[in-house]
Design a protein that fits this description.
- There is one protein chain.
- By secondary structure, the chain is α+β, with helices and mostly antiparallel strands.
- It has 3 domains: about 240 residues, ATPase, nucleotide binding domain (Nucleotidyltransferase, domain 5); about 90 residues; about 90 residues, Alpha-Beta Plaits, CATH 3.30.70.
- About 45% of the residues lie in helices and about 25% in strands.
- The chain has 12 helices and 18 strands.
- β9 and β10 form a beta hairpin.
- The chain starts with 8 loop residues before the first strand and ends with a strand.
């Protein structure tokens, strides 16, 4: 069941930045002074540093009632957990993992002490948290709400202030997550090391948000490129491992983003470095943000809270439950007993009055429900129209960006080919001439050819010598010392009677 029908507002909390966002219907805004409200649903998340995740298999013969105990025992054993600590353990079944004898589950393990320490400041402000979800499970809502419709494998990279994560979904289901080395704070520290001077974290985040990798300061730009080169070297290793471990042939897309918003040039840089299709982790969820940047994780929490219970992963680590209903409190039970006794005494005279009141109350509820449904209808129609307009605009922009990107890609490829693979002909000719002189062979002429549509680079040397032994000795030396760099071809040695010399053409193909 969705919480939309039960609560009037949703409050999301980031315990690491200690910021809060409140949403009602389709608007979302920052809440500077959050407080306890009974009609408010509160959701938060655990970053990947705060939990351990593992794929654990158990026998299919284990009854449903015993699954938790079986997973708990295997988690302590396989993850070498401290037996003296009673960890918080939650799990979701890996339904795309098929085995004839076992069922597999994604198990999430959290130290209760760290859970209490991280969320106590939040609870001091709002008294309770209804749901605490591992951050990578929030991505499920992207598939449920059709922001991503494909069943292929997708990767997600997201940089937060205190953490960064890589997550993998395949066939629209979670399969793997990994905490990355570089959070925004770690990026800032490393950037200051490369730059050789300190700058404020806020200034660093402003540079990423406003200028991206195309910083106006040349020193900033140079060191940002060096920093992200280190980051993607680490990320490439994680991607390689995930593909091998989970038998993923190819990622359809890798989505990349950050808590400071879209970093200009980051997706293009990542695509060039990783050799994969990269898209910005910057979804339009349909929330009215008032033109302000709202962290995608906050928006995902509000989207996730609106899902039906059977559409999301039921993995809740909260230990900060809201007060029990009045009827379940001891004082409430006593009051209800007294009220029941009083009601029994007044049952007969109040029967007719009660029936009339019930009908009026029923009418008021139905009228209220109609008004809410009508508002929902109008809102959804407006949302659909907006999304269609955004889709058409985005498609036009995408076509333009694809064309521009193709031109840039072709230019970079040509530059790379010239810088990396273009042979230094003068140096190569000098090197060969040195070898010719050693064996008393003279160079009569030299030619170099390179076909436009081929990577073949051919050097042709016309050689002369007083005897054939010098040429054959030269060829033997070249094929033994330079066979790792060249393929040699010398088919014929001819005699020039006019000059009493031997002629031959030596061809060397650069590998």
């Amino acid at each position: 069941m969705s919480i939309q029908n039960t609560f009037s507002t949703i409050l999301s909390a980031n315990p690491y930045r200690r910021d809060f966002y409140l949403s009602t219907l389709n608007s979302i805004s920052e809440s500077a002074s959050p407080s306890f409200k009974k009609e408010q649903y509160t959701i938060s998340f655990l970053n990947t540093k705060s939990f351990i995740s593992a794929l654990i298999g158990i026998s299919k013969n284990i009854p449903e009632d015993d699954i938790y105990d079986a997973l708990e025992n295997k988690a302590y054993e396989e993850l070498a957990l401290d037996m003296a600590i009673e960890y918080q353990i939650q799990y979701v079944e890996a339904i795309n993992r098929i085995n004839d004898s076992e069922r597999f589950f994604h198990v999430f393990v959290v130290d209760p002490l760290s859970l209490e320490q991280e969320f106590t400041p939040v609870v001091d402000a709002i008294k309770y948290i209804d749901q605490i979800v591992p951050v990578t499970l929030l991505l499920k809502s992207l598939y449920v709400k059709d922001f991503i419709e494909s069943n292929s494998a997708h990767g997600f990279i997201y940089f937060q202030e205190n953490d960064a994560f890589f997550a993998v979904y395949n066939e629209q289901e979670f399969i793997y997550t990994k905490s990355l080395k570089y959070s925004l704070k770690q990026m800032h520290e490393r950037f200051c090391e490369l730059l050789g001077e300190p700058i404020d974290l806020i200034n660093f985040e402003n540079i990423l948000a406003s200028q991206g990798l195309n910083a106006t300061n040349p020193e900033y730009q140079k060191n940002l490129l060096k920093l992200f080169g280190e980051i993607f070297l680490h990320i490439n290793d994680v991607i390689t491992y995930s593909k091998r471990a989970f038998e993923i042939k190819q990622f359809e897309s890798i989505y990349i983003g950050s808590a400071v918003g879209n970093i200009s040039g980051l997706d293009e840089y990542a695509q060039t470095y990783l050799g994969l299709k990269i898209q910005p982790f910057d979804f339009n969820f349909g929330f009215n943000t008032g033109g302000k940047n709202v962290d995608q994780i906050h928006q995902l929490m509000h989207l996730y809270a609106r899902l039906e219970s059977n559409e999301r992963y039921e993995c809740n680590f909260t230990i900060f439950h809201r007060p029990p209903p009045f009827a379940k409190r001891d004082s409430g039970k006593l009051i209800l007993v007294i009220a029941a006794a009083l009601a029994t005494a007044l049952l007969y005279p109040g029967t007719y009055w009660g029936l009339s009141y019930v009908e009026e109350f029923h009418y008021a509820l139905m009228n209220q429900e109609y008004e809410q449904v009508h508002i929902d209808k109008i809102t959804r129609e407006a949302t659909v129209n907006l999304k269609l307009a955004n889709k058409n605009a985005a498609q036009t922009l995408l076509d333009e960006e694809k064309s521009a990107y193709k031109q840039k890609q072709d230019t970079l490829t040509q530059v790379h080919e010239k810088k990396v693979n273009y042979p230094m002909k003068a140096k190569i000719a000098a090197d060969f001439t040195h070898s010719f002189n050693q064996y008393r062979v003279k160079l009569k002429s030299f030619a170099y050819t390179e076909e436009n549509n081929s990577s073949t680079k051919l050097f042709s040397f016309m050689l002369t010598a007083q005897n054939t032994q010098d040429i054959t000795a030269l060829l033997k030396n070249l094929t033994s010392t330079k066979k790792d760099k060249y393929d040699f071809d010398l088919k014929l040695i001819s005699y020039d009677g006019n000059n009493s010399t031997y002629l031959s053409e030596l061809k060397a193909v650069l590998k």
